[in-house]
């Protein structure tokens, strides 16, 4: 049985999250708090806590401030908030997850399964999507007299929108082709390696080298700032890929 605590100043948010948690028989809500200062005072008196769900924007004391004080009291800490701008700060204090409101039951289950892995069935060969079995595609290269060139999925670093064209940056060459970013992303999105983080950029996650705040630097030196409309996706990506430590910087 996993013990849970919810800290949120909105009663309806606590009720909604509680309803999700109650669908998991192995999870037990031992306490909920509407006031962060009360949580700060009482958290040490509770039984061992496996996971704390905590809002960010709360009166008198923010969730970020509270999390710094109680992080050592729980194995996992997950922020539940409508604000994307706190994602990087949250992970700096070793949060394990970042659920952006309003989140669905499916999104909640995905996060829980990531932190508390279940045994999932393996897909048979017949169930593997076709896009997973293809290694490459062909496009016409504007800068090479419209010659058809092969682009290998794993070689792609990023794709950038260039008006009516897209520039495909790869580890071997760059390819300019007549296509919209939306069109090429329909294909790339079927591959789990690709993510759109700006209205003009789709990137290969494997080629993300560094992240500073909302600035992403890729393996070829290309840099861009995560777009406002993509910060939720960015936060979820960080949540799924960061390794946390109990040590403080």
UniProtKB/TrEMBL annotation:
Per the record, the coiled-coil ranges are none
A Pfam family that this protein carries is LytTR
Residue ranges of every copy of the Response regulatory domain listed in the record: 3-116
User: What UniProt keywords are attached to this protein's entry?
Assistant: Phosphoprotein
Superkingdom field: Bacteria
User: GO MF terms on file?
Assistant: DNA binding; phosphorelay response regulator activity
Which residue range or ranges hold the HTH LytTR-type domain?
A: 147-212
The modified positions for 4-aspartylphosphate read 55
* Name the UniProt record assigns to this protein: LytTR family two component transcriptional regulator
Q: Which organism is it from?
A: Pedobacter duraquae
Q: What is the lineage of its organism?
A: Bacteria, Pseudomonadati, Bacteroidota, Sphingobacteriia, Sphingobacteriales
């Amino acid at each position: 049985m996993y013990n849970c605590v919810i800290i949120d100043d909105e009663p309806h948010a606590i009720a909604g999250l509680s309803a999700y948690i109650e669908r998991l028989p192995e999870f037990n809500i031992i306490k909920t708090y509407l006031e962060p200062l009360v949580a700060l005072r009482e958290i040490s008196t509770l039984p061992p806590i496996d996971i704390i769900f905590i809002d960010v924007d709360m009166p008198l004391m923010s969730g970020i401030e509270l999390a710094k004080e109680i992080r050592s009291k729980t194995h996992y800490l997950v922020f539940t908030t409508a604000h994307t701008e706190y994602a990087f700060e949250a992970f700096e204090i070793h949060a394990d997850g970042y659920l952006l409101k309003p989140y669905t039951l499916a999104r909640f289950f995905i996060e829980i399964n990531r932190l508390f892995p279940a045994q999932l069935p393996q897909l048979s060969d017949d169930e593997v999507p076709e896009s997973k079995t293809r290694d490459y595609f062909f496009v016409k290269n504007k800068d090479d007299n419209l010659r058809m060139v092969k682009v290998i999925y794993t070689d792609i670093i990023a794709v950038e929108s260039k008006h009516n064209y897209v520039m495909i940056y790869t580890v071997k060459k760059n390819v300019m082709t007549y296509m919209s970013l939306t069109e090429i992303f329909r294909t790339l999105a079927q591959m789990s390696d690709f993510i759109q983080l700006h209205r003009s950029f789709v990137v290969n996650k494997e080629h993300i080298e560094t992240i500073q705040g909302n600035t992403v630097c890729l393996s070829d030196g290309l840099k861009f700032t995560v777009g406002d409309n993509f910060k939720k996706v960015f936060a979820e990506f960080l949540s799924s890929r960061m390794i946390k430590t109990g040590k403080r910087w």
